[in-house]
Amino acid sequence: MSIVTFRNVGKTFGSRPVLQDVSLDIEEGQVAALIGPSGAGKSTLLRCVNQLERHSAGEISVDGLVIGTHTRSRDLTALRRRVGMVFQSFNLWPHLSALENVMIGPTSILKTPLSQARRQAEHLLDQVGLAAHMAKYPGQLSGGQQQRVAIARALAMEPRVMLFDEATSALDPEMVQEVLGVMERLAAAGTTMLVVTHEMSFARRVADRIIFMADGQIVEDAMPEDFFSAPREARSRAFLERAH
Ligand code: ADP
Ligand code: MG
C-alpha cells in the first residue's frame, strides 16, 4: 500500500519552477533516500509532504488524505499529524527537559494523559539511547543527543511516515554515526521513511530505493545496488563521481 503519493506535483517560487511534474509512490515500510545536488528541490519535495510548502500543481496524498493545491487548513492539521519531520537544526525547546520535549506534542496536541505520555516518552528516549539523559535540558546535551531527542519527539506523535532533511549535516563528525544508527534501527523496525542525505554509504546500506533529483525533477529512481554500481543517467553518474 502507498503511504505517500505525488501525482504530477509542481512547485514554483515566484516564476521559478523548483519541482516539475514529480510523480512518486512510497510504499508502507519503505525507506527512500532522496539524493542530488544542492538546489535540486529535495527539501522542497519533503516539505510539500507535510505542506510546510504548498505545492502549485498536482496532487499529494498521505495515508489516504488527498491534498490538492487549495486544501483547507483543517485538512493540513490532519495531514501534519500523520507526518513526523526531523530537520538539520534540532529546534528543541531550550527551557524543557529532553523528556518534556518529547511529551509536549502528545499532551498538548493529542491530549494524551500525562502519565501515559511520560511512559511513552521514557520508552522512546530509551530506544534512542538516552535513558540516562531524560532530565537534561538541550543545552546540556551534545548535538547528536539533541538530534536523537528530536527523533524521539517526532516519533511520539506516532506518524505514518518520517521525513529526515539532512538530519546529520549540522553534526560534528563523531556524532553522525549515533544518529544514523538510530535511523537505521527505525528503518529495520519497518518505519516508512523519506530521507534526504549526503551520507552515500548509509543510503546504499539502509535505503530500499534511491531517488536521485536534479533541477526539480526525479532523474532516476532505482534500487541502491543498481544506482550506485550502474547509474543509468548521465547526471546520476556525474553526481556520484563528484560525491567520491
Ligand atoms: P535542495 O534541498 O535539493 O538543496 P531546495 O528544495 O532547498 O533544494 O531548493 C530548490 C530551489 O528552490 C533552490 O533553487 C532554492 O533556492 C529555491 N527555494 C527554496 N526555498 C525557497 C523559498 N522559500 N523561496 C524562494 N526560493 C526557494
Ligand atoms: Mg535541502
From TrEMBL:
Matching PROSITE patterns: ABC_TRANSPORTER_1, ABC_TRANSPORTER_2
Annotated ranges, domain ABC transporter: 4-240
Molecular functions (GO terms): ABC-type amino acid transporter activity; ATP binding; ATP hydrolysis activity
Keywords: Amino-acid transport, ATP-binding, Cell membrane, Membrane, Nucleotide-binding, Transport
Transmembrane segments: none
Membrane topology per record: Peripheral membrane protein
Protein family membership: Belongs to the ABC transporter superfamily.
Name assigned to this protein: Amino acid ABC transporter ATP-binding protein
